[in-house]
């Protein structure tokens, strides 16, 4: 059992989360060491409707084979999408999110396989979506209560914070953590966003998707998380990805000149402020 929920005392909100069909879409490239641990923690959550879909780009370290073994051991709960070569985080997510929605997920969760996104937040993300009716919920480092792992060097903190401020100033989404990669989406939003039209790959995919959703009027919430340092393996962040990130906001904005500014319907909520937003979820 993972997280802060004591055994034997499942609160009503958590019990409600358990009935929801949620697929965690997890792209992997050389995550053989961490995947079994993260997968085990996810499957131990008291969420019977939760599935894991690993999207592996033919990792040389055998991550794909490990994912296949997990799928054999947990039929119906773990699936694997094998792709032939490393093609970037964005393309892996487009393939994985599309498949998960086609297979009937009501919500899909973007989550890294390197341990940066703690499994203990998964019930909170689902609970926040159900309680607010938001189209997407962001696990955010930059709302009150959110933070970066203490191991992060000052220059990395500065770069991450600056990147968010820069993108935020240009695109004005209203989100505090627009580069976040720990995001729960309602399936209707994923369908409406037409992922095959998303142009960015890598890390920029995260920004482009959120921008498109906010622009379409999709309500979003952010909940605070502590972003952990990866425990095993190596980062795949490249100079090319960082360059793409610098020009991305301008590319998105120029592409939008005809369509008007983004509609801003983003709230920041903490665990104590969750409210039931009720009625129909149809976006955009
Ligand atoms: N399928 C697939 N997964 C990828 C690819 N690149 C990265 N990933 C996965 O995407 C997730 C995030 O990648 P990281 O290397 O941790 O990148 P990051 O989190 O942006 O950077 P760090 O902060 O340095 O960890 C991990 O689960 C990676 O294994 C890729 O080309 N294909
Ligand atoms: Mg990482």
Task: Set out the fold topology.
Elements: H1 12-18, E1 22-28, H2 35-44, E2 50-56, H3 63-73, E3 78-82, H4 89-102, E4 107-110, H5 122-132, E5 136-140, E6 147-148, H6 154-171, E7 183-186, H7 187-192, H8 204-215, E8 220-224, E9 226-227, H9 239-255, E10 266-268
Parallel strand pairs: 1-2, 1-4, 2-3, 5-8, 6-9, 8-10
Antiparallel strand pairs: 4-7, 5-7
Helix pairs in contact: 1-5, 6-9, 8-9
The chain binds guanosine-5'-triphosphate and magnesium ion (MG).
Radius of gyration: 18 Å
Bound molecules: guanosine-5'-triphosphate, magnesium ion
**Helical residue percent?**
25-40%
Number of E-state strands? 10
InterPro entries: DPM1-like, Glyco_trans_2-like, Nucleotide-diphossugar_trans
Protein name: Polyprenol monophosphomannose synthase
Organism: Streptomyces hainanensis
Domain Glycosyltransferase 2-like: 23-190
Structure description:
The protein has 284 residues and is of the alpha/beta class. The protein has one domain (12-270): Spore Coat Polysaccharide Biosynthesis Protein SpsA, Chain A. The protein has nine helices and ten strands. The protein has helices at 12-18, 35-44, 63-73, 89-102, 122-132, 154-171, 187-192, 204-215, 239-255; strands spanning 22-28, 50-56, 78-82, 107-110, 136-140, 147-148, 183-186, 220-224, 226-227, 266-268. The protein has an eight-stranded mixed β-sheet, sandwiched between helices. Helix 1 crosses helix 5 and helix 6 packs parallel to helix 9. The longest helix has 18 residues, at 154-171. 45% of the residues are buried. Mean pLDDT is 84; it is low at 1-6 and 258-284. Guanosine-5'-triphosphate binds at residues 27-29, 31, 55-57, 86-89, 92, 112-114, 116, 203, 230, 235-237. Guanosine-5'-triphosphate binds next to strand 1, strand 2 and helix 4.
């Amino acid at each position: 059992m993972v997280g802060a929920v004591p055994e034997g005392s499942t609160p009503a909100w958590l019990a409600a989360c358990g009935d929801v069909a949620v697929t965690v879409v997890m792209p992997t490239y050389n995550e053989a060491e961490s995947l079994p641990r993260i997968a085990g923690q996810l499957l131990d959550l008291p969420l019977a409707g939760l599935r894991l879909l690993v999207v592996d780009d033919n990792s040389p370290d055998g991550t794909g084979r490990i994912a296949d073994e997990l799928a054999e051991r947990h039929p119906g709960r773990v699936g694997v999408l094998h792709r032939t070569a490393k093609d970037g985080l964005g393309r892996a997510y487009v393939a994985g999110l599309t498949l998960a929605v086609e297979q009937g997920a009501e919500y899909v969760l973007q989550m890294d396989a390197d341990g940066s996104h703690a499994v203990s937040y998964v019930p909170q993300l689902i609970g926040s979506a159900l309680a607010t009716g938001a189209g997407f919920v962001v696990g955010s480092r930059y709302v009150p209560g959110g933070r970066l792992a203490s191991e992060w060097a000052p220059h990395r903190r500065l770069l991450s914070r600056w990147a968010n401020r820069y993108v935020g100033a240009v695109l004005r989404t209203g989100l505090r953590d627009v580069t976040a990669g720990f995001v729960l989406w309602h399936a209707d939003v994923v369908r409406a966003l037409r992922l095959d039209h998303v142009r960015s790959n890598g890390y920029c995919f995260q920004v482009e998707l959120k921008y498109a959703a906010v622009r379409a009027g999709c309500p979003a919430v952010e909940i605070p998380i502590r972003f952990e340092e990866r425990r095993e393996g190596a980062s795949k962040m490249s100079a090319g990805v960082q360059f793409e990130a610098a020009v991305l906001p301008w590319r998105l904005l120029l592409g939008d000149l005809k369509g008007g500014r983004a509609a801003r319907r983003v709230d920041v909520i903490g665990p104590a402020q969750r409210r039931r937003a009720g009625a129909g979820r149809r976006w955009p």
